[in-house]
Amino acid sequence: MIEFFFSRHCLRVVFSFALCVPTTLPFSFRIIIAPALLNSSCKSPKALDVGCGSGYLTAALGRFVQARKDKSGGNVYGIDIYPRLVDLARENILKEDGDLIESGTVELKHGDGWEGWPEKGPYDAIHVGAAADKFPLKLANQLAVGGIMVIPLGPDGGYQYFYRVRRVAETTSGDVEKDFEMTRLMGVRYVPLIHR
Question: Is 0.85 surpassed by the pTM of this model?
Answer without folding.
Answer: no
